[in-house]
Sequence to fold (440 residues):
Amino acid sequence: MNASETSTPVERYGQLIDAGRAELPDWLRAMAGAANDAFRAKGFPDRRDENWRYTTLSALLEQPFVPAEPNAAVQPSDIEDLMIQGLGASRIVLVNGRFEPRLSELHDLPGGVWVGGFAEALRDHGERVRAHLGGAREQAADAFVNLNLAAPGDGAVVLVDAGVALPGIVEIVHVSVGGDEPQLAQPRHLVVLEEGASAAVLERYVSLGDSSYLNNVVIELSLGERASLQHYYLQEESSGAYHMRSQYLTQRAGSRYEGLGCAIGASWSRSDWHVDFAGTGAECDLRGLYVVGDGQLADNHLHMQHRLPGCTSREDFRGVLNGRGRGVFDGRIVVHQDAQQTDARLSNNNLMLSRDAEVDTKPQLEIFADDVACSHGTTVGQIEPEQLFYLRSRGIPEAQARRMICLGFAQSVLEGVADESVSGHLGRVVGERLAKEVSL
Fold:
């Protein structure tokens, strides 16, 4: 019996993060050390933790992960089929968590915009990164956030100066390439829009092959006053993947965020969405879609903090579940005492294609102010026989009719994507995924 079979999960993961801090600047090395101490002291959560009540980590923690290694053998032709055609975007490509300039396309960026890798940003824009990095750890001492910060690797950074409108889309593509052993990658992304800036960012996770790995992602988004961000997140990884993602969004006065998240891949995936209003009159519109089948878990946790007056939030998450697939939605909106004239709406709707599918849904509102307009709700249902009969009576085969109903159910989440290439890609991959489930 070897040491890995007798050690605890915290000890095994601790061995993965012991190296790699010597090259960091002093301020980041101190943050990494504190995160390492916190991780080792608190360890991983279990089901006694309310935020993990419906999600087990047992399968994940049993995996003998090793640090992900760069893969210089990946060529542009290897990932060509994974790219969205006609997007015309500036593209940051990461392979196993490492920025790959030779695969990226960063061209025609206007003045006042910097796009590149996290390690490069530390070198060229260290003070600016320092000003915005680390809010995630201050807001929530989560094991996976601490694990990420304890061993900061590479990632993508987008910096937009005040008043600059970034044309087109910046695409962040994380490509996972398996090895002989399951690998752990910990990309850390940072998007900063200064006062009055605007941009669109597409964040994607794809795979070459079906090997097992864990991507433990942290992304921090900072919007200055009156800044505007369109943000699309798409997780379409292999069936052997584990995917943990923590997003931290800070919005200042008058800023606007439009977000769309789709989880259609991986055997185990979880997204934690944290939103903190740090200024009055900010608006957040967040939509999510998860599609799961046999052997899959998709978990979404939403933490929305209304601290100041006059902010608006809209959250609409939808799930399509088949076979023995499982979904979790835990949405919590807190309206603090000073957050008068808050307008917050939260909904989670689920379409069950199988009696064996399962969803645990818990939308929550905690209101400590008296002048607010807030609502929340959830539904869990199956395809209505009347809908199916209507389509069948017009000569549409059953499998196609079921797919059309599922697409219609998902469409309210997918609609509103301004870019035609992104909209077309989303419609295609979601349609293919639904076609696979309804044909089973």
